[in-house]
């Protein structure tokens, strides 16, 4: 489905999406791991009016040689900035293949509480041998990987409902903290794991954390947002966000020259994602065209120090003036900002 308003998300991993971004950031390589750098980039995104910031991650360090040497875990980064922001959504990438489902659900519920209802989850499904070796597993086939994704998302959603909204009562007269009849075992059995529950954290303020799933995982019916590679959005029940990588310059020639300099240090592998190498005006034209069929766009700036600044100064104000983009309101939950309803608790009727 698509609407008259384009939601804008931006990935804020490291110094940018290009593997050589750290060489062109204009600051010492190690500074990207500091709290000051993270706070500055998320604060700039919130001030500019982005609906959502995402944080990429992998179970193993990014790589050797010209690529970055490491990163801080995405959930930790999101938690750190949760109390320094008040309206931007925060969505870390957490991998279902290398994270125990109960702990994954707990971490995301805790992020939703810390941010007063602004948590999202980019579903990761690392299936390479190096990632799975971190837990002593072997690479699954495509069908088994999809089954694992479905099972973990289903288990997490059940666990978020395992506490009803009014389970916490805090009765000082009787000394009761919660109503035990409103806390439920989930008894989930997947292909490779079981979960009894309940969660150790009360129900998230949003009821359910916003789930973002890449379209390639083919789990659209479990997602609130589907991240789509390519120019076309099929009819979906979930919101559809286009994935767009960007290299910007004041002229197209300058942008192409920047892209060539970056690729000379480390090649940026081509994917099915859209890639705009050109001017901010050209990007505005692209976003206008995507607004016809997509509900939102997740932008992947090649180098934050360059692309991010041009996005803030030359792209978002134009979209705002045209009514294609509206920043989230202070204090709004991520579901509020996206126009998504707060789900009812599946256990409430029974109790």
Task: Describe the 3D structure.
- The protein has 351 residues and is α/β, with parallel strands linked by helices.
- It has a single domain, classed as Luciferase-like domain (TIM Barrel).
- Helix content is 31%, strand content 18%.
- The protein has nine helices and 13 strands.
- It has helices spanning 35-48, 74-82, 101-114, 129-133, 142-161, 252-265, 280-290, 304-321, 334-338, and strands at 7-11, 52-55, 89-95, 120-124, 168-171, 176-178, 188-189, 194-195, 210-214, 225-228, 239-248, 274-278, 296-301.
- The strands form three sheets. Strands 1-2-3-4-9-10-11-13 form an eight-stranded parallel beta barrel, surrounded by six helices. A two-stranded antiparallel sheet has the order 5-6.
- α3 links the parallel β3 and β4 (120-124).
- α2 packs parallel to α3 (101-114), α3 (101-114) packs across α5 (142-161) and α7 crosses α8.
- It starts with 6 loop residues before the first strand and ends in a 13-residue tail after the last helix.
- The model has no long low-confidence stretch (mean pLDDT 91).
């Amino acid at each position: 489905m698509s609407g008259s308003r384009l939601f804008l998300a931006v990935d804020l991993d490291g110094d940018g999406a290009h593997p050589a971004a750290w060489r062109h950031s204009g600051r010492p390589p190690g500074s990207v791991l500091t709290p000051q750098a993270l706070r500055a980039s998320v604060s700039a995104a919130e001030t500019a009016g982005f609906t959502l910031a995402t944080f990429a991650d992998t179970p193993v360090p990014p790589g050797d040689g010209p690529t970055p040497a490491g990163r801080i875990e995405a959930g930790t980064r999101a938690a750190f900035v949760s109390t320094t922001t008040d309206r931007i959504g925060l969505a870390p990438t957490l991998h279902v293949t290398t994270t125990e489902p109960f702990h994954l659900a707990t971490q995301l519920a805790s992020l939703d509480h810390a941010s007063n209802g602004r948590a999202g989850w980019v579903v990761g499904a690392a299936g390479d041998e190096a990632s799975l070796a971190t837990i002593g597993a072997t690479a699954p086939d495509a069908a088994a990987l999809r089954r694992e994704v479905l099972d973990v998302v289903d288990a997490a959603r059940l666990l978020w409902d395992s506490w009803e909204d009014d389970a916490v009562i805090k009765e000082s007269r009787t000394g009761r903290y919660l109503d035990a009849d409103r806390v439920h075992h989930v008894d989930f059995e997947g292909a490779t794991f079981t979960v009894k529950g309940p969660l150790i954290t009360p129900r998230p303020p949003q009821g359910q954390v916003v789930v973002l799933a890449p379209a390639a995982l083919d789990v659209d019916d479990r997602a609130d947002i589907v991240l789509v590679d390519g120019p076309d959005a099929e009819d979906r029940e979930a919101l559809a966000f286009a994935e767009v990588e960007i290299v910007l310059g004041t002229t197209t020639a300058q942008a192409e020259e920047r892209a060539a300099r970056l690729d000379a240090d480390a090649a940026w592998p081509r994917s099915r994602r859209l890639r705009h190498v050109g001017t901010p005006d050209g990007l505005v034209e692209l976003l206008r065209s995507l607004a016809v069929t997509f509900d939102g766009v997740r932008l992947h700036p090649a180098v934050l120090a360059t692309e991010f600044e041009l996005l803030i100064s030359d792209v978002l104000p134009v979209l705002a003036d045209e009514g294609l983009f509206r920043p989230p309101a202070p204090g709004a939950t991520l579901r509020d900002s996206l126009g998504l309803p707060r789900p009812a608790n599946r256990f409430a009727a029974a109790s």
